[in-house]
Please model this.
Amino acid sequence: MTTSNARDLPDGRVDQHVDRRRFLARTGGAILCGVAGAVVASAATGQRSSGAVERQRTSAPRVRLFLCGDVMTGRGIDQILRHPGDPRIFEGYVRSAGDYVAIAEQASGPIPRAVDPAYIWGDALAELERAPPDARIVNLETAVTDVGEPWPGKGIHYRMHPANVPCLAAAKLDCCTLANNHMLDWGYEGLQRTLETLRAAGMRTAGAGRDLAEAAAPAVIDVSGGGRVLVFAYGSPSSGVTMKWAARSHRRGLNVLDECAPGAVERVAREVGEWKRPGDLVVVSLHWGSNWGYEVPAEQRALAHRLIDDAAVDLIHGHSSHHPRPIEVHRNKLVLYGCGDFINDYEGITGYEVFRPELGLMYLPEFDSRTGQLTRLLLVATRTHRFRVERASVEDASWLQDRLNREARAFGTRIEPQPGGVYQLQWT
Ligand SMILES: [Zn+2]
Model:
């Protein structure tokens, strides 16, 4: 099912399978993110999902998370926030971040400017407030900086002005994972400003740091009632993260992990073992794989299984794909192969409509905190419109359900609608 794979590799090369000029012509010169979005209901119908996402009282201690895929608040999104940064960008065909706002407006109508920090999250915030999760974890697919130079030879450089960080705080994020193919778009200076800005705003980070030890250390989130969530974040070359960006013992950078490299599982097992205490829920967040298509490479599936079998990992939080990929439950542990995009400025960019990249998912898993086993996964289907997350219509959510169920057949999972317009995962 894999189609062409529009990769923006960090060294500026583009995947050979893509006729870039033809793609750019179709999109008016706009460029999607480099290599590279579980309860659902309808804004159109006004359906409420509150009943289905209410926490169920059980005797076993539970930990509930909110996860989503890429949150890209740079470029066009940055331009509609209260403190837009310098709009100059250095892409082959586009010179101003404002052009991405214009492209979206051509497709969807006027987009407000100087928006409230909560604007971009739209309906997602109400969904989260109805049944607040214990921890909120996203992949932040942009630098947060007003300093630094664009990484030489790279085709796309994402950045959000640090003064706009309230747009991340508005969602009460506990952890932003940073090991992805845009975190060094503005160099080491940009990375440093990103880390300082997020931490000053009270958010934990994982996957990047001032040295390898800091980049590899998990974000530690204390859970009310006891226990912790540990978030380890890795970026894979298969998503366009170059080894040049890897942190070293005395060099800033990212926590890079190649799913094909010998010793990858042993390394993660060692790092998890250094931190894990009884009752901890271990999340491994992985930026891996291509942007488009539903196929899960055999090496990714093998790594996911081995991380669960041999590295005491409870949840694989995969991202990089621009649309949701299949979900698997391996030995009662959850594997999200690709959570898709959640927030970005790609609206109006054409060429990949077949994947409906405007549709995403909120993943709301619940675990038995004694065992790390999945007890329930609820999903909310979303759609981005005018740079704002909305609940998907009944029709759109149904499309997403059909597509995921088709692609997840080989993984033994299905999502089924529940009362209140949410979906719930079923697995064998
Ligand atoms: Zn990416």
